[in-house]
From TrEMBL:
GO molecular function, one term: proline dehydrogenase activity
Key word Transit peptide present: no
Species name: Suillus fuscotomentosus
UniProt KW keywords: FAD, Flavoprotein, Oxidoreductase, Proline metabolism
InterPro entries listed in its UniProt record: FAD-linked_oxidoreductase-like (IPR029041), Proline_DH_dom (IPR002872), Proline_oxidase (IPR015659)
Chain spans, region Disordered: 399-421
Residues in coiled coil: none
Domain Proline dehydrogenase per the UniProt entry, residue ranges: 166-387, 413-555
Protein's UniProt name: Proline dehydrogenase
């Protein structure tokens, strides 16, 4: 096997040599690296496979095919090699810059990392995947995974002369239409837009000409927001007046006329996106990003929630006439079936401002009369935040060192000091949110408009078990015994009114064992487990794939990629033994 791989890599290198009778030193060195790394990787994966299959049991409820498992094993085997993962962006940039070699690398990346982590090149192209996920009782959160390098694209246009960020906005709207069309074709009889489980995610830094405008707004908000008691640590917490500067004639020292123009246009584009989403019954999730963007992102997110998540003026309960009218399909048209919450904002528990920021957000939403949409995550930028903060506060930063983007005024980094602190914060926030959901359900009943919606985005088994336990403890779910004879198990039955307020989620291509376990452990009228499904052309999503490989270390935790690899190996071995027996 090693000889075959070695000779195959050598043949590729020989082909690369045909581009020049005297190949440059860089290409010769690259050929040697390809040969050695190919042989080494194959040897390592072949060695560890034997250990993997003998040290772990295959996960239950896993429906992946043998080809899917083989791909997952290769991807996570690669991700288990930390130095290779850290060097991946540089390696890929180099390989893609070499004629001939770039096509080979592109084919390899598409067959492995792209198909592992990306749904398709386009939203419509991902529809077969959505059908497959729904057949397994999984929903989907669409994300156009184009990450813009602001140094390269500021002022840039595409072939039609259209600004790059405007093309991204059009793709987001297309993904909303694709999501709604998919749901429209699922069921001829639905309660309006209630129960839909195909949603859309947006990333604000990709939606304006220069992301520096968001940093400038964040700096302005950090300097001008009123102090709270008790205080909320950086990046702070939103205020209803945050976006008033966009309508003021007085400029500040941090915001330029160009910033104001671009930020106004961003808000207008976000309103266009959310209006279309409201018309089609598709929830919109605003991604969290680095802390230097977060004050601005929070400001836009809460402004959109106040506009699109507004609760009925006549209270939480619909009238008896509205409820009884659901028995008539024609009368159902008059029912207020708007999705609530429509807009969700991401809360990162690795930030030290939590849970104070969450507590303030709950109070603000209640005072302003809108439903709070919460996507609860741990966060994936911890090492970058620490480095940026220390660089910004270093005395060397003023004498030729790389400029830090950090804008935190606090002496300590904005992130938690340890993984354990982040885990505890996630648990505390989840407990608070489930308690709020319990109060909301008991107050508004089965047909009331939700004043809270929570998407628990986590790859942590302990967190998922804890959340399920808390759901049962608060009376939001009932434990039932299902199965026959010796094969029985406990499941948590979640009623529709709770299912409209709660969902679990994992990234597509990651933690499939946990996703399938949650599906097996819960029963609900609509899918309550969602996969985050990125889409985009391979060249466009390369930054996402590079970041995903690196972030596997923090998203999955210590040894996470290794566990994924071993789980795939155990299932491969199980399927191979089944083929031999049959």
């Amino acid at each position: 096997m090693n000889l075959i791989t070695r000779s195959g890599a050598l043949r590729l290198f020989v082909r690369a040599r045909t581009f020049s009778t005297a190949p440059p030193p860089r290409l010769r060195r690259l050929g040697r690296v390809l040969v050695l790394s190919s042989a080494l990787t194959t040897s390592v994966l072949g060695y560890v496979f034997y250990n993997d299959v003998s040290n772990i049991e295959p996960a239950p409820f896993d429906t992946r095919t043998l080809s899917d498992l083989l791909r997952a094993y290769i991807v996570y085997g690669t991700c288990s090699i930390a130095p290779l993962v850290d060097a991946a962006p540089t390696i890929l940039d180099t390989l893609f810059s070499i004629p001939g070699v770039s096509k080979i690398v592109e084919s390899f990346v598409r067959a492995t990392f792209f198909h592992q982590f990306v749904g398709a090149d386009t939203a419509n192209g991902a529809l077969p995947l959505l059908t497959s996920l729904r057949a397994e009782n999984k929903g989907a959160l669409f994300a156009y995974a184009v990450e813009v390098d602001q140094k390269e694209v500021t002022g840039q246009t595409n072939m039609e002369g259209q600004p790059v960020h405007k093309r991204i906005i059009e793709e987001i709207i297309r993904s909303i239409n694709a999501s709604a069309d998919f749901e429209d074709g699922r069921d001829a009889f639905q309660d309006g837009h209630i129960g839909r489980r195909t949603w859309v995610s947006v990333k604000l830094t990709a939606m304006l000409p220069n992301a520096q405008s968001l940093i400038n707004l964040s700096t302005h908000l950090t300097n001008t927001r009123a102090q709270l008691e008790p205080p909320v640590l950086f990046p702070g917490t939103p205020s209803p007046s945050d976006l008033s500067i966009l309508h003021s004639s007085a400029l500040t020292g941090t915001l330029t006329e160009s910033d104001i123009h671009d930020l106004k246009e961003l808000y207008s584009d976000l309103v266009q996106i959310c209006t279309r989403a409201e018309e089609r019954g598709v929830r919109v999730f605003i991604d969290a990003e680095y802390s230097w963007y977060q004050p601005a992102i929070d400001a836009f997110g809460h402004a959109l929630m106040e506009r699109f998540n507004k609760l009925p003026s006549n209270g939480f309960l619909r009238t008896w006439w509205d409820i009884s009218s659901w028995t008539s399909s024609s009368a159902r048209k008059s029912v207020d079936d708007r999705v609530r919450p429509l807009v969700y904002v991401t809360y990162q528990t690795y930030l030290r401002r939590m849970p104070a920021h969450l507590t303030h957000s709950l109070a603000l939403a209640h005072a302003r009369g809108y439903a709070l949409g919460v996507k609860l995550v741990r966060g994936a930028y911890h090492p970058y935040e620490v480095v940026a903060h220390h660089l910004a506060r270093s005395a060397d930063s003023a004498v030729g060192s790389p400029r830090s983007l950090s804008i935190s005024p606090d002496p300590e980094p904005p992130v938690q000091p340890s993984k354990n602190a982040t885990d505890q914060c996630y648990h505390d926030c989840a407990t608070v949110l489930i308690n709020v959901i319990s109060q909301d359900v008991h107050r508004s009943g089965r047909f009331g408009a939700p004043s809270i919606g929570v998407f628990f985005a986590t790859h942590n088994w302990t967190s998922c078990e804890s959340i399920l336990e808390e759901i049962v403890k608060k009376g939001l779910g009932v434990v039932e015994r299902v199965g026959v004879n010796e094969v029985q198990e406990d499941v948590v039955r979640i009623p529709l009114e709770v299912g409209e307020r709660i969902a679990f989620g994992q990234l597509y291509g990651m933690s499939d064992a946990l996703t399938n376990y949650l599906i097996g452990r819960t029963r609900c009228e609509r899918p309550c487990v969602i996969k985050y499904v990125p889409f985009g052309a391979l060249v466009q999503v390369m930054p996402y794939l590079s970041r995903r490989a690196i972030e596997n270390k923090s998203v999955l935790g210590a040894g996470g990629a290794t566990r994924e690899r071993k789980g795939a190996a155990a299932l491969i071995w199980k399927k191979m033994k089944g083929l031999v027996v049959s």
